[in-house]
Amino acid sequence: MTPVTMVQDVSFAFQPLLSTRTGEPVAVEALARPKSGGIYDLLRKAGKSGRLVETDITLASRAVLAAARHDVAVPLHVNILAATATKAEELIAALRPALKETGRHQTEVVLEISPPFSQVHRAELLRGLDQLRELGYRIAFDSVGDGDLPLSLLADVAPDLVKLDAHLIGGLPDEPASLAIVESLAHFCSRTGIRLAAVGVDSEDQLLCLNRLGVRLAQGALLAGETADATTLVPLPRQVADIIELNATTRTTNEAPGVPMVVDFLRPATTLPETVTAEEVRDALAAAPTINGVILVDNYGRPTYSVERSRFLIAVTGPYGHALNAKKPASRHADAPRVIRADATGLQLLEMVGDADWERAGDDIVVVDNHRVCLGVVRLTEVVRGVAESKIEQAAALNPVTRLPGAEIVDREIDRRIHNNEMFVVAWLDVDSFKAVNDTVGFAAGDDLIRSIGRALADAEADLPGTRVSHVGGDDFLIVTELDEIATLAGRVVDQTWVTEGMTVTVSLASLVCGVRTVASYREASRLLAPLKKQAKAVAGSSWVLTRPGADRVEVLRGRPGERRGQHALRVDPRADTRYLAAHQAV
């Protein structure tokens, strides 16, 4: 039986690879679907007949042809076995006519190398991958975490993409081992510049976990199912769109003050109708030598094409370029525009470019409004410089011991919540008798203690989307959080036993529940919180007290009120810990 006979009943489905930050498709994978049985059954039969590599190469070629109607601006992922990659010359020869017929370039194809790896000679595999890369093909390793891929091969090859196996993702977010492995691979990919993708995402908890771990690409039934037509865009399920939107919003509010917005770099766009000729675009470029390109828009002002100056002029100038192209549509030499909304941050723009683009670092990015109408363009180089400068400024403002920001971040966050008529809790955490720590066990031990508390607060901030923490200085921390998050945060710091150099230390947490329009500013909240801090420190042991503006009672939720340090009179209600949330929400 020949390879052609083996694959004659195989069809192809297509599944997008999505950005977990934006929900936008950044690539599409061609998946072979035999008429009966699975693809591995077919490959097993091919292997028994001694035609495994030939069959796999035929499948790869057919995958490219099946994606003929797919937008070539979005990379196509094609699966091949590791054994096939060792026969690079044969694979290249088979793919060349398929690429030519579909108008796709090698740089727009990602070859996903699948196991088994143990059955191929390592040197032959490395040689084959080098040959494929020299022609522009991108390399991804598939099924990482459940196959026989040696970790040393990741280091030697440095693939463009690593795809985590669905079995590994299935353990998220509850299995500590799976969580640790994904977190480690995310760190490895971040350090090496390799992109990391998760396969088989089928629950909202998994998607949230992947966002938190920094896995920027994902595919699975939860995000988008398979389609027979590679051109079909399947809208995200509502709950998934909400998660991605929440993630984007959370990142924006989590970012320290000063992170620039996209509109901070906005330039006027040179726009022309999408029907213009190449000659008209050339004239526009000649009239404005400082612009990077031209944006072609439809009748409503929405961008449809992006014409980059250098690539366009190379194509239409020269001895015959003008004669061949002048009167033809300029869109023949244009790309799909890279678009971002005006309310995005500079960091979100950099993530979008990193997720979706391989080569177009010099192109302008089109900024649009809610109706996708072009507002202008930004240059990637300027955004990179602006974000870098803001990060330097933020780093200079961090506390050198805890690496937490100063009170300014909570200042701005409180004023923002007041402006938005939101309910919130502002809290002050203080180490009891901190001077005694320094005097007894030394300044280094004191720094270690403050650093440990800072880490606990930073971890709480990462887990609680409505919480912001700052290190005011010394042993004082200022926090703004949500009413339904303050108990969790208190559990992280007040219920913890803090020990440094054998010395046990207690902490005091004073929290002020600020209802809508009960405080006018950060300054007023700070003024009301100051005496509450003294009352918290009057309670023996690690303490937590809570009240609200104008209340005549302070609730003691943690500590030993019968052994108060000072003479501050407190009305103690030991049951308040179980009922304060409902009571204050009702106020």
Proportion of residues in extended strands: 15-25%
Low-confidence stretches: 248-257, 566-579
Rg estimate, integer Å: 29 Å
In helices, the fraction of residues equals 40-55%
So what's the CATH class of the largest domain? Alpha Beta
Largest sheet: 8 strands, mixed, barrel
CATH architecture of the largest domain: Alpha-Beta Barrel
Global structural class: alpha/beta
Q: What strand order characterises the main sheet?
A: 1-2-3-4-5-6-7-8
What's the CATH topology label of the largest domain?
A: TIM Barrel
CATH superfamily of the largest domain: EAL domain
In total, the number of strands is: 22
Q: What is the molecular shape?
A: globular
* Number of discrete helical segments: 22
- Mean pLDDT across every amino acid position: 83
How many domains make up the coordinates? 3
First-residue to last-residue Cα separation = 78 Å
Question: Your description of this structure?
Answer:
One of its GO terms (molecular function) is cyclic-guanylate-specific phosphodiesterase activity. Pfam families: EAL (PF00563), GGDEF (PF00990). This is Diguanylate cyclase (GGDEF) domain-containing protein. InterPro entries: Cyclic-di-GMP_PDE-like, EAL_dom, EAL_sf, GGDEF_dom, Nucleotide_cyclase, Rev_trsase/Diguanyl_cyclase. The structure is a single chain. By secondary structure, the chain is an alpha/beta fold. It has 3 domains: about 230 residues, TIM Barrel; about 130 residues, CBS-domain, CATH 3.10.580; about 190 residues, Alpha-Beta Plaits (2-Layer Sandwich), CATH 3.30.70. About 40% of the residues lie in helices and about 20% in strands. It contains 22 helices and 22 strands. The strands form 5 sheets. The protein has an 8-stranded mixed β-barrel with strand order 1-2-3-4-5-6-7-8, surrounded by 4 helices. The chain starts with a helix and ends with a helix.
